[in-house]
């Protein structure tokens, strides 16, 4: 006979006053009126990581219409919406006065401004499942059975009723949430056919409240975005209908202007444009080509066998630039490695802001070229390679995928010569000034020599070695954790990801840690290169969902992109690679 809610209540009453380890007896599943409660893991004491629980109710009880989950974009948005509803109800029902430590806690990770796939909510045509944590009540290390029964047998059903049933939710808010995600995906899908790499809708609100609060800035001084007429594009979306906005074409785009006029704010919106946004965010229809990667300098990071020849050669210490290693990269070396690593796993758009770039990798002006001759300078500046990236037949590799660049500049006009489009931000309003920039470039030639020698080289493949990844720590064979958006704790190693700016959710950091171990166990076979290992990890997730990362059916993980996975792997200080054939 299956256990019931009444069985759970009786069991908890019997456990009242016993030592905390007796809570282990409640592990299992319990049938409630119209859902099943699974108690998968029970914490060891009230101060330990909370217990892991799941609730599953059949779709016949949940009542969601098929059109809310039958299409991938809408299904992800529905899962996101339910995670917001469930986590909100958790905060309402959690009662931290129920005892010591984490007693009384009910929690699920609360999503931010972006709509992301999460393991916390799973939806199929047959059922809805929510995964969350609970702090089982105790006084000291003695079980508070009556409080536990109230929490699990009364509060959890209220939680399910209020957040996982279609009839309990606001249908207008739900529809808006699903529609805005579907529109963003449809818009992103139209970019290639329009020759664009990004789109910013007229009326968008780009500024955020602060560096630690990504909600839209609420102020009468916020200037709604309005495209220059010369860059305005109109698109038709499934729900928003006809929408106009600024289209950024493939090639080299410069965003220029004075300080505090909105250059970096626009670039920040484009960085996040690889993700969908919730209604009311202001950036709902700011979308970017999904492979876009933000590039910056990152002094001090480790570099493992990266082919830096497009940017660095003839190093004075005799180091091999085709398989460059360092435990303490300079600003220019780290930025060069970041570019190559992004291209290695398929980035088609690079986003750069000169404020966070290494100056000597970006430009060498005529005066510096005169003082330090090329024979004494191993660095080839980005300005002299960018056209080979964006137009491979002009000096790169024939047949290679063209890569676009969007670059924020405030101090270097040398890039006017290589730009396809120049946008000037003036009091948060964009103006296209390409013709003016080209005229200035013609009137005021820089006099600098182009330093790129030869075409873009065919980059060497790197084979990551599984034995260089060790997730063990002490007695634990696998110890992997995330530390906010700062680090992946992989065994005894701490992978610093603070400079990986398109990581936006702590669940992504935790998921990437597990994905590194998945790659070590299954895909690092001594033959697959970095791109192939990364693709294999993403294919496994595409086939099996985020549960491919962890057999424990935890709600801790959030979907990530291949570029951030590769970034974490490349920053693992024990990583070793060998050259590919």
Strand content: 15-25%
Structural class: alpha+beta
Tally the helices: 14
Count of distinct structural domains: 3
Description:
The chain is of the alpha+beta class. The chain folds into three domains: 165 residues, no CATH class; 152 residues, no CATH class; 118 residues, no CATH class. It has 14 helices and 29 strands. The strands form nine sheets. Strands 1, 2, 3, 4, 6 and 7 form a six-stranded antiparallel sheet that branches. Helix 12 crosses helix 13, helix 12 crosses helix 14 and helix 13 crosses helix 14. The longest helix is centred in the N-terminal third of the chain and has 24 residues. The radius of gyration is 26 Å and the shape is globular. The model has no long low-confidence stretch (mean pLDDT 95).
Summarize the structure.
With 581 residues, the protein is an alpha+beta fold.
């Amino acid at each position: 006979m299956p256990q019931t809610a009444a069985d759970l209540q009786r069991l908890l009453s019997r456990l009242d006053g016993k030592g905390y380890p007796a809570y282990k007896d409640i592990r299992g599943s319990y049938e409630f009126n119209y859902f099943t409660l699974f108690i998968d893991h029970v914490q060891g004491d009230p101060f330990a990581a909370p217990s892991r629980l799941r609730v599953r109710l059949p779709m016949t009880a949940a009542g969601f219409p098929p059109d809310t989950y039958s299409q991938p974009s809408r299904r992800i948005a529905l899962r996101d919406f339910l995670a917001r509803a469930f986590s909100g109800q958790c905060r309402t029902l959690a009662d931290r006065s129920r005892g010591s430590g984490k007693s009384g806690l009910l929690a699920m990770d609360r999503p931010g401004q972006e709509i992301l796939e999460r393991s916390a909510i799973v939806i199929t045509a047959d059922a809805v499942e929510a995964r969350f944590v609970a702090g089982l009540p105790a006084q000291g290390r003695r079980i508070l059975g009556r409080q536990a029964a109230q929490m699990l047998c009364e509060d959890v059903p209220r939680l399910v009723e209020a957040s996982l049933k279609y009839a309990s939710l606001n249908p207008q808010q739900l529809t808006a949430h699903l529609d805005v995600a579907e529109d963003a995906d449809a818009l992103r899908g139209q970019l290639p056919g329009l020759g664009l790499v990004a789109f910013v809708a007229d009326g968008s609100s780009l500024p955020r409240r602060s560096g630690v609060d990504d909600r839209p800035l609420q102020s009468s001084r916020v200037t709604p975005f309005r495209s220059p007429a010369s860059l305005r594009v109109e698109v038709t979306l499934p729900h928003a209908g006809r929408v106009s906005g600024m289209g950024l074409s493939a090639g080299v785009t410069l965003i220029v202007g004075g300080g505090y006029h909105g250059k970096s704010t626009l670039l920040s919106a484009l960085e996040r444009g690889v993700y969908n946004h919730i209604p009311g965010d202001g950036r709902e229809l700011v979308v970017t080509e999904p492979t876009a990667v933000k590039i910056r300098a990152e002094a001090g990071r480790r570099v493992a066998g990266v082919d830096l020849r497009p940017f660095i050669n003839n190093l004075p210490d005799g180091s091999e630039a085709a398989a460059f290693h360092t435990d303490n990269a300079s600003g220019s070396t780290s930025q060069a490695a970041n570019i190559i690593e992004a291209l290695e796993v398929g980035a088609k758009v690079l986003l750069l802001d000169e404020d966070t770039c290494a100056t000597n990798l970006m430009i060498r002006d005529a005066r510096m070229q005169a003082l330090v001759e090329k024979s004494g300078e191993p660095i080839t500046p980005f300005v002299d390679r960018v056209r080979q990236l964006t137009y491979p037949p002009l000096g790169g590799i024939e047949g290679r995928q063209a890569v676009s660049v969007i670059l924020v500049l405030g101090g270097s006009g040398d890039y006017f010569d290589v730009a396809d489009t120049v946008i000037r931000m003036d009091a948060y309003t964009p103006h296209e000034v390409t013709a003016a920039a080209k005229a200035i470039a013609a009137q005021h030639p820089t006099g600098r020599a182009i330093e790129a020698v030869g075409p873009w080289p065919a980059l060497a493949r790197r084979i990551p070695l599984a034995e260089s990844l060790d997730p063990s720590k002490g007695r634990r064979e696998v110890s992997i954790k995330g530390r906010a958006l700062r680090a992946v704790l992989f065994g005894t190693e701490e992978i610093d990801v603070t400079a990986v700016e398109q990581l936006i959710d702590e669940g992504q950091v935790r998921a990437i840690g597990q994905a590194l171990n998945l790659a070590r166990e299954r895909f690092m076979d001594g033959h697959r290169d970095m791109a192939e290992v990364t693709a294999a990890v993403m294919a496994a997730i595409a086939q099996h969902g985020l549960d491919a990362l962890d057999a424990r059916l935890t709600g801790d993980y959030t979907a990530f992109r291949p570029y951030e996975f590769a970034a974490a792997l490349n920053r693992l200080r024990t990583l070793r690679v060998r050259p590919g054939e």
